[in-house]
Amino acid sequence: MKNIVILISGSGSNMAAIVRAAQQGNWRKTLDAQIAAVVSNRPLAAGLVFAKEQGVATDVVDHTQFASREAFDAALMAVVDRHQPALVVLAGFMRILTPAFVSSYSGRLINIHPSLLPAFAGLNTHQRAIDAGCRVAGATVHHVTAELDHGPILAQATVPVLAGDTAQALAARVISQEHLIYPLAIANLLPKLMP
């Protein structure tokens, strides 16, 4: 069985989309995979409630309790490794991970970013796309590497940038596409991973 561990920091809307897709597509039978755990760096992350309601194991590694990024990442790795993940999925996990963490899960650590990478790595992607006069924006699922938002691309989806768009309006259109492409990208990647 291929275990998937999802890391979140907030509401976990992408995590919820992945959990629902796994349930509806019966990934346990079709892909020999399951969502083994949802882990958050914030104790009050709303996504933890959803995960628990779906019967998914949850855990918290509160980043504020650690003196360094390295110490936090070591503790996070210990929790993730308890689930023996074939795949670690970042779904709104708002921490930059250390090279040691990334290296530990090389080839099996993925993220979704709210832009059409390589454009607009980092934060404030929607406003930056509007300010640059882009006609389209979107989302990218990619492998995580030590360089922020630069790993090999697994999937992308586009949405139009409309006249008079606000960052919030564009974000709403982009996230609706994120919820579609992230579960699909995971389902396409899983057969290529070792259990």
Would you mind describing this structure in some detail?
The chain contains 7 helices and 7 strands. It is of the alpha/beta class. A 7-stranded mixed beta sheet has the order 3-2-1-4-5-6-7, with helices on both faces. Helix 6 (125-131) crosses helix 7. The N and C termini lie close together (6 Å).
Molecular shape: globular
Whole-number total of structural domains? 1
Which strand-content bin applies to the residues?
15-25%
Low-pLDDT segments, ≥5 res: none
Quaternary state, please?
A: single chain
Looking at CATH, which topology would you report? Rossmann fold
Rg, alpha carbons: 16 Å
Mean pLDDT: 97
What would CATH call the homologous superfamily? Formyl transferase, N-terminal domain
Mind telling me the CATH class? Alpha Beta
Biggest beta-sheet profile: 7 strands, mixed
Q: What is the annotated CATH architecture?
A: 3-Layer(aba) Sandwich
Summarize the structure.
By secondary structure, the protein is an alpha/beta fold. It has helices spanning 13-24, 27-30, 46-53, 69-81, 99-104, 125-131, 167-189, and strands spanning 2-8, 33-40, 57-60, 85-90, 109-113, 136-143, 153-160.
Helix-strand layout with pairing:
Layout: E1 2-8, H1 13-24, H2 27-30, E2 33-40, H3 46-53, E3 57-60, H4 69-81, E4 85-90, H5 99-104, E5 109-113, H6 125-131, E6 136-143, E7 153-160, H7 167-189
Parallel strand pairs: 1-2, 1-4, 2-3, 4-5
Antiparallel strand pairs: 5-6, 6-7
